[in-house]
Amino acid sequence: MRSPEVELDVLVAHELATCSPAAAVIWTKAWRPEEGLMPPRRPVTVERHTQRYHGGETDVRALAGDRTLLCENKTLGGTFEPGQVESYAEECRRNPQMRSVLIAPRSWLARHRAAPFDGFVEVEELESALREEADAIAGDVVLAELHASYEHRAAMFHKFAEDTARTTVPDALMRAFQERYEAILAEVSGRQLALGPRSLIGKGAGHAHVRLMAIPRAPIVMHKFTVGILDLRFRGVDVGELDHLYARIDREDGPMVHWRVNEQEDGIWPVLRRDDLTITYADTDELQASLAMTEAAAAMLALSDWLRSDAATRVRDALVRNRKGSSRPPRRQSAEPVGTGELFPDL
Question: What is the CATH number of the domain that holds 201?
């Protein structure tokens, strides 16, 4: 039986080798988008358990062009070996094109963020990235196999998270909240808006994925209802490009006057954001929650209508053109075979 640490190494290596949505999270924690470097789309060479110059092993090493990424992976209860952290720092000091990241459960990282790594990645973030992409292609028969793969890998990352309160079955309170939200979306939009399959799942969920059904490939708006924010993410577009496209549009007194380009918190892709909505929670007064849902639904319907208009052609094309899952990712080559043989017997 493989140890949990080795299993996590295998999962991380697989994501990096396939340039998956989870890999994009990892790369952007080491090289932020404002540095002008996006996650690689070219084939990435991935190796496991490689030796560092000053001794010790790197759990996973990824090479993309002139960039080298070192990943140290920890599971709950894991500890650093003597000199391990310092050897990563020294290795990166020797090579300006090399960065290191520490990947671990959120609760474990909370106690180790002072370590001198270039970035910190929560396994929960990798799970979320894969689930979001699974939601984006749900129902696409051509991409059913890719959808199942994303779901399976997300579930495997979930095993490493300490917080098990987030379950796959909504509690009674959240289920009632979800049913009310679905009814309001249908009433306001005439079925042009629909909840994604993983919206409002688990105790304490704070956001919903709402699909714009009238737009090609039904892009998702994330409604962060506990902070009053709507985000429409543009995959494959950097902040500068989206800002340039959006700046050319006359928004005065129009439906988009309250929307702006914003860099998403995870730093991966930019979003069109509206952040002036009424805040609500699942356990608030039913009338108050319904009013907040109606307000959000009206804003998303106006966004959908605008995206379908001639004025939004360039922005719509950028949104649809770069949707993940529009084609099957090419098979990547790595130093160790990834996705086949003994390395990945169950992925």
Answer: 3.30.1460
